[in-house]
Design brief:
The complex is a heterotrimer of chains A (338), B (186) and C (417).
Chain A (H helix, E strand, L loop, with lengths): L51 H17 L3 E5 L3 H6 L11 E3 L5 H14 L6 E7 H6 L2 H9 L5 E6 L40 H7 L4 E6 L3 H11 L6 E6 L3 H4 L6 H11 L5 E4 L2 E5 L8 H5 L9 E2 L2 E2 L1 H17 L10
Parallel strand pairs in A: 1-2, 1-3, 3-4, 4-6, 5-6
Antiparallel strand pairs in A: 5-7, 7-8, 9-10
Chain B lengths: L1 E8 L4 H14 L3 E6 L9 E9 L14 E4 L19 E5 L21 E4 L1 H8 L6 H12 L4 H11 L2 H20 L1
Chain C lengths: L1 E5 H11 L4 E4 L6 H12 L7 E4 L3 H13 L4 E5 L1 H6 L1 H9 L5 E6 L13 H5 L6 E4 L3 H18 L3 E6 L7 E5 L3 H7 L16 E2 L8 H30 L7 E4 L6 E5 L3 H14 L4 E6 L1 E3 L3 H8 L4 E6 L9 H10 L6 E5 L9 H12 L6 E3 L4 H13 L6 H9 L8
Parallel strand pairs in C: 2-3, 2-4, 4-5, 5-7, 6-7, 11-12, 11-14, 14-15, 15-16
Antiparallel strand pairs in C: 1-8, 6-13, 10-12
Helix pairs in contact in C: 1-2, 1-7, 3-5, 7-9, 10-13, 11-12
Classes of the chains: A alpha/beta (338), B alpha/beta (186), C alpha/beta (417).
């Protein structure tokens, strides 16, 4: 975390306030700036252009490898990440990697961690990872069990807000009003219904586990820092990473980072850290934007912006969601990061 | 093969009684097979357990339909369960009751059995006196040793102590001895 | 060492002697006493170097086992009935990944209607999942099969399910010989995985496989089980040499010489059947038995050899393929297809229904007279069945079948059986 007494200026990886790695102290530079980086997911995999998940997973796992001296095992739930990295007989993974099922990544990771303890190799750390479907829906039971037992596993959820691998169906992480294949934009209540879904970071916190954080591909340095921090902690840890999906969201490939940033700046995706069930830090909104700025570039929300007939009511309700987040996590404050 | 069926209610140590009996037989070098009536019964529900004793390996896995001996841990079952089912006239009957067969309404029924093979003993009172809890299973095994002569009281005692170490075991051994004596006196 | 001990506790001791490194436990009757026994051994330090995880479901139990086995730890879990069905996706996954997990299945019926008692419906639901499935005839064999199972699983890198009849074996207290640690150590070498998650040598396990290679992967799984057809008898022989008693193998014959009627069964009912065979032999009947231990792989050749001189075969099985009949019998018929010999199915012991000697004898005698139908339900209460059929025929809303039947049976529940 920045030293608040000497660090009033924020550096950002991309966008209008981007600075290069050269302006950072060498130890603060991203692992991606090094030619000798670990490269958990090597090139040649088959993710779509602009895939937020591929980007988030590579940064997260590279950071974990650096933090552990490469002593890390990854367990993967079924999903896009699993499919696009391991088309038989190829694999993009440069670390030991195991895929079992859709709904059991957390439990499988618990097993790997238990084996490492039994084998007298507790220095080998374990990461479980999955998409929002594999985490908030089908894998939720195993995840809650892993949390509750405080097993020594870092679980990373790459949240692109629907089942993208199977063709963009609604998950319990799909936002209200979003069009998916199972919540089509038809009828008088188009898209996903309001008042549904679950907030997994808050549920993770309710387990009282040592560390919960949210992160975004809009701020990869922050993601790296959180993964590195998580690897210094023993017990169950959870990082929820916001990863736009151009295919599922109907957005331009080059807009992945921009949309991720707008989700933060609108208040729709709060970025925070929690320890033992309490929020300890949140990332303040730099320049607040209305939710329309985030929603408009995505075809999954296009039904809200019909020519001459915007769905004022539903846009207002989404704005209310953002405002509630801003209030809950105190995201608009003059002091910046807290 | 000698087959024993124990009737009682959940919480009276019916299953443990059969197991201790099997241990006593084992200690005498016999083969024994104890098993419960496999229920999900809670406290107070009718429960049955079984014990087979033989000089060779026991392969049979059916419940005991034709018992050589019956131990009835709770006389209130007489009105609700056909406890005597399958018992031949050569069988043994040991009932936990301070009252006699006549008072239990069995005066006429038991005349078909050999008098030396049927007995009522107040095992719950003995357990209360020696153990402090109304669990009559160990005392009844002492009575079983006396009435059948199939196993020694010493073996019953050893089986009890293996199951209940310490003070509880000692109390149960005393209860078994009291029951053994009561049957012998009968 | 001889002990008078509950089957589950004896199995727990045997499994402990195999030095498992990770054990996952989730309670379901009737396997619970086994994992309870192991939990106590880990907690009080008798079983060292073992991680014991209390998980939140059977699906998690086997998933944890998948992770720990893939990370190179000797791994054990147990389940029964609904639990096996709840983990079934992981059951297939464990064998697909070739992970040598050993799991006890405390055989129990599957609902609805919910039923906690013994039959083999659970095992049959997983029969094609790629696990080696061994059925124990007695508690001594249950003890011994677990020791063989770890060696078999790890040699071939395939999971092994040891099936033991719920309650009948798991809850019976009997005289059992528990081997010593030295004996087990001499028989069972440390686990040397063929694949392992190790940062020093990173590999990917669990890749997606398309049509171009899936058949080959599946064939190799089949090949592995065919290899087990050779290894299972060899291991049983090794075991007999080391421990001085017979256990396991593909199948065991009982008094087959000159037998015209041969009864084949799996699990503890074989004990009762042997007693019936002895009784009938004493009265001059030409009858013998085959106890099938290895259900998967199914030993087609050895079954055919054992049954080749039979004039008729009776398969007693504790399961029902609804709409077909017997599962084991269907497999036996595959072995017998070269002979013109009737194979009758006797469905028995469903949901814990007692299998009395008298009923078996009556059935075998009918078979010997060639009067047994192809599919026979032992001790089926036709009165109850016909009343319910009548009721259902009378009106549309005839109500739930199970509850209707229980109402008909009324006080019969209070009989001993």
């Amino acid at each position: 975390m920045p030293n608040e007494t000497v660090q009033p200026i924020k550096f950002y990886q991309t966008g209008t306030l981007t600075v290069g790695n050269r302006l950072l102290d060498p130890e603060k530079r991203t692992v991606q700036a090094s030619g000798e980086r670990t490269n958990a997911i090597t090139s040649g995999h088959r993710a779509c252009q602009g895939c937020g998940e591929a980007l988030g997973a590579r940064y997260a796992l590279d950071a974990a490898m650096r933090a552990t001296g490469n002593r890390v095992v990854a367990v993967n739930a079924t999903g896009c990440l699993e499919v696009f990295t391991t088309p038989y007989p190829e694999t993009a993974w440069q670390l030991p990697w195991l895929h079992s099922l859709f709904g059991n990544a957390a439990a499988v990771a618990s097993g790997v961690a238990a084996a490492m303890r039994a084998k007298g190799r507790p220095e080998v750390r374990v990461i479980a990872q999955g998409g929002d479907g594999g985490t908030t829906d089908i894998g939720f039971g195993c995840l809650s069990g892993m949390f509750e037992r405080n097993d020594d596993v870092l679980y990373i959820c790459y949240d692109n807000e629907a089942y993208m691998n199977t063709g963009v169906q609604r998950s319990s992480a799909t936002p209200p009003a979003a069009r998916t294949a199972t919540t089509p934009a038809v009828g008088d209540k188009p898209g996903n219904v309001f008042g549904t879904g679950k907030n997994l970071p808050l549920i993770a916190m309710a387990h009282g586990i040592p560390y919960v954080a949210t992160a975004s591909v809009a701020d990869l340095r922050d993601l790296e820092a959180k993964v590195q921090k998580a690897m210094t902690i023993r017990g169950a840890r959870y990082i929820h990473v916001f990863v736009p999906c151009p295919l599922g969201w109907g957005s331009a490939s080059q807009d992945t980072i921009k949309l991720a940033r707008l989700a933060i700046e609108s208040g729709l995706f709060p970025v925070f850290e929690a320890e033992y069930g309490e929020v300890v830090r949140s990332r303040a909104i730099r320049r607040k934007v209305p939710v329309e700025d985030y929603l408009k570039p995505q075809r999954r929300f296009a039904h809200l912006f019909k020519a001459g007939k915007p769905d004022v009511d539903r846009i207002a309700r989404l704005q209310a969601v953002a405002d509630a987040n801003i209030k809950r996590f105190n995201l608009l404050r003059p002091d910046g990061d807290a | 093969m000698f087959q024993v069926r124990i009737h009682g209610r959940g919480g009276q140590g019916v299953v443990t009684g059969a197991e201790m009996l099997s241990v006593a037989a084992f200690l005498e070098g016999k083969h024994a097979q104890a098993f419960p009536s496999f229920g999900s019964e809670r406290m107070g529900a009718p429960v049955v357990s079984y014990c087979r004793i033989d000089d060779r390996e026991i392969r049979l896995r059916e419940p005991i339909l034709v018992p050589d001996a019956l131990i009835i841990q709770d006389p209130t079952l007489l009105n609700s369960v056909d406890v005597f089912q399958g018992l031949p006239d050569s069988g043994y009957i040991l009932i936990n009751s301070a009252r006699g067969f006549a008072e239990l309404g069995l005066g006429e029924y038991i005349t078909r059995f050999q008098a030396s093979r049927v007995c009522c003993i107040g095992a719950t009172d003995m357990a209360l006196r020696h153990v402090g809890r109304p669990v009559p299973n160990a005392a009844l095994l002492g009575g079983f040793a006396a009435i059948t002569g199939l196993i020694k009281l010493e073996s019953v005692n050893e089986a009890i102590l293996e199951t209940f170490p310490g003070k509880v075991g000692a109390g149960n051994v005393a209860a078994a001895a009291a029951a053994f004596d009561a049957v012998k006196a009968h | 060492m001889l002990k008078q001990i509950e089957g589950s506790q004896a199995m727990a001791e045997a499994i402990g002697l195999c030095r498992p490194e990770v054990i996952c436990a989730y309670p379901i009757t009737p396997q619970t006493h086994i994992v309870e026994g192991l939990g106590a051994m880990v907690k009080d330090g008798r079983l060292k170097g073992c991680e014991y995880l209390n998980v939140e479901s059977e699906f998690a139990a086997l998933s944890v086992a998948i992770g720990s086995s893939a990370a190179g730890a000797r791994t054990y879990t147990a389940t029964a009935s609904q639990g096996l069905l709840f983990m079934l996706e992981a059951v297939y996954n464990a064998s697909g990944l070739g992970l040598p997990i050993v799991m006890t299945l405390g055989n129990r019926a599957i609902g609805a209607p919910i039923n906690i008692w013994n039959d083999h419906s659970d095992a049959m639901a997983a029969r094609d999942a790629g696990w080696i499935m061994l059925f124990a005839e007695s508690n001594q064999e249950a003890v011994d099969l677990h020791i063989q199972a770890f060696r078999l699983a790890e040699e071939l890198s395939v999971p092994v399910m040891v099936c033991v009849d719920g309650f009948i074996l798991t809850h019976a207290v009997e005289r059992l010989d528990i081997p010593s640690q030295e004996q087990v150590d001499a028989f069972l070498p440390p686990f040397e995985p063929v694949q392992v998650l190790d940062p020093a040598d990173p590999i990917s396990i669990g890749a997606m496989v398309g049509p171009e290679a899936f058949t080959e992967v599946r064939y190799l799984a089949h090949h592995k089980q065919m290899t087990a057809l050779d290894r299972i008898p060899e291991l049983a022989a090794d075991f007999a040499a080391a421990f001085g008693r017979e256990a396991g193998g593909l199948l065991k014959s009982y008094r087959l010489d000159d037998a015209e009627t041969v009864v084949l069964a799996m699990g503890s009912v074989m004990g009762t059947i042997k007693d019936v065979i002895d009784d009938m032999r004493a009265d001059g009947a030409r009858i013998g038995g085959v106890s099938l231990c290895s259900f998967r792989p199914f030993p087609i050749g050895p079954v055919r050899e054992a049954l080749q001189n039979a004039k008729r075969v009776v398969v007693v099985e504790k399961d029902l393929a609804v709409g077909l009949g017997g599962v084991v019998a269907a497999n036996v018929r595959m072995a017998m297809r070269v002979f013109d010999v009737p194979v009758c199915t006797v469905i028995a012991g469903l949901g814990g229904r007692s299998i009395p000697k008298t009923s078996l004898r009556r059935t075998f005698e009918a078979a010997a007279r060639n009067e047994l139908e192809g599919l026979h339900f032992l001790d089926l209460n036709w009165d109850v069945v016909n009343r319910e059929l009548e009721r259902a025929g009378e009106k549309r809303r005839s109500g739930p079948v199970a509850e209707n039947i229980l109402k008909d049976l009324g006080l019969i529940m209070h009989k001993v059986m």
